[in-house]
Specification:
Number of helices: 13
Distance between the termini: 51 Å
Number of strands: 4
Strand content: 5-15%
Shape: globular
Helix content: 40-55%
Low-confidence stretches: none
Strand order of the largest sheet: 2-1-3-4
Length: 282
C-alpha cells in the first residue's frame, strides 16, 4: 500500500542529490546512517515511523537488481517536493536526498542506467583495503550459510563462477546473477575498472571517493568532506556507530601476501585513475 502510494505520486518526487555506490563490505551502511544524522539529509520514503518502521531505508537497488520495476517505482522511494520544501523551511537551509546501494559500483549496467535517468546526481564511493574487503565478503557469505568453499577454494572457483555472467547482465535487463553479486570476492576489489564507467559519465568533479580506513579513523573529517561536496553546512559531530561488523579468524599470512601481490597492479591503477593515495598502498 505504501509503495503503491509512492508510485502514484512519483511525478511529485524529484531526483536524489547523491548515490553511495559502494563498495560492498566497505562501510557504506555505517557511512549512510552517519550521513542521515545531519539535519539537512532527508530520509527516503517512507521515513521511520514509531511502531511501524524503526530504521530508515538505505538502498533501493534500482540501477542494479530492480531496474525492470521502472522509473516510477524508483521515484516512489524519494521524498516529495513538498516534503523537501517543508524540511528546508524548518531548517532554513538546503536539503539533500540520497540512497546507498553498494552493488551499483560493480554492476556492469548501473552507471549507464543511473546517468540516463540522473545525469546531475553526485556519486560517493567508500573503498576498503581490497585484501580486507575480499576476505570480509567471503566471511559474510560463509556466515550466511551460502558459501560451502573455504576462502582459498572460493577464490580459485571465482573465475568459473563468474564466466559469462557479465555478458548475461549486459544482455538482459531482467537477469540477476547471484555469482556476479555475491561470489565475486576478489573481482569486486579491483576498484579502478569498476569506477571507470562512473567517471566516464559523471566526471571526476562529481565523484567523491574516500577510504574506509580514513572514515573509521576520523569519521567527522570524511563526513564533512561529503557535506561540502553535497553543498550542505559541515556537521559538528558523528554518531560513531559502526554497523555490520563481522569479526572472525584472521587471514592467514601466506594468503594475505598472495592477495597483496595480486592487488598491487590494480591498486596502482586506482591511484593513477583518481590521482589519489589510499592507506593500504602507502
Amino acid at each position: 500500500m505504501v509503495r503503491a502510494g509512492g508510485v502514484a505520486t512519483s511525478g511529485l518526487r524529484p531526483d536524489p542529490d547523491f548515490l553511495v555506490i559502494g563498495a560492498k563490505r566497505g562501510g557504506s551502511t555505517s557511512l549512510y546512517f552517519d550521513l542521515l544524522a545531519h539535519p539537512a539529509y532527508v530520509r527516503l520514503y517512507p521515513p521511520p515511523v514509531p511502531g511501524l518502521k524503526s530504521i530508515a531505508t538505505k538502498g533501493v537497488h534500482f540501477f542494479d537488481s530492480h531496474f525492470t520495476e521502472g522509473e516510477r517505482w524508483y521515484r516512489s522511494y524519494l521524498p516529495t517536493r513538498v516534503t523537501r520544501s517543508l524540511h528546508e523551511r524548518r531548517l532554513r537551509g538546503p536539503s539533500v536526498v540520497g540512497e546507498a546501494s553498494p552493488y551499483y559500483l560493480f554492476h556492469p549496467c548501473a552507471a549507464e542506467r543511473a546517468h540516463a535517468m540522473l545525469p546531475e546526481v553526485k556519486i560517493v564511493a567508500l573503498l576498503r583495503d581490497p585484501v580486507e574487503r575480499t576476505y570480509s565478503h567471503w566471511k559474510e557469505r560463509r556466515r550466511a550459510g551460502a558459501e560451502d568453499l573455504d576462502f582459498v577454494a572460493a577464490l580459485a572457483a571465482e573465475p568459473d563462477r563468474l564466466a559469462g555472467e557479465r555478458e548475461r547482465l549486459l544482455a538482459d535487463p531482467a537477469y540477476r546473477s547471484y555469482a556476479w553479486e555475491q561470489q565475486s570476492y576478489a573481482t569486486q576489489s579491483r576498484y579502478a575498472e569498476a569506477l571507470v564507467p562512473w567517471l566516464e559519465r559523471y566526471g571526476r568533479d562529481r565523484v567523491l571517493v574516500a577510504a574506509s580506513e580514513d572514515y573509521y579513523a576520523d569519521p567527522l573529517d570524511v563526513l564533512r568532506r561529503i557535506d561540502e561536496f553535497l553543498g550542505v553546512p559541515p556537521r559538528t559531530s558523528t554518531t560513531g556507530a559502526i554497523r555490520n561488523q563481522a569479526p572472525g579468524a584472521p587471514l592467514a599470512p601466506e594468503v594475505r601476501a598472495r592477495l597483496e601481490s595480486e592487488f598491487a597492479a590494480p591498486n596502482r591503477e586506482l591511484e593513477a585513475l583518481l590521482d589519489q593515495r589510499f592507506p593500504w598502498t602507502s
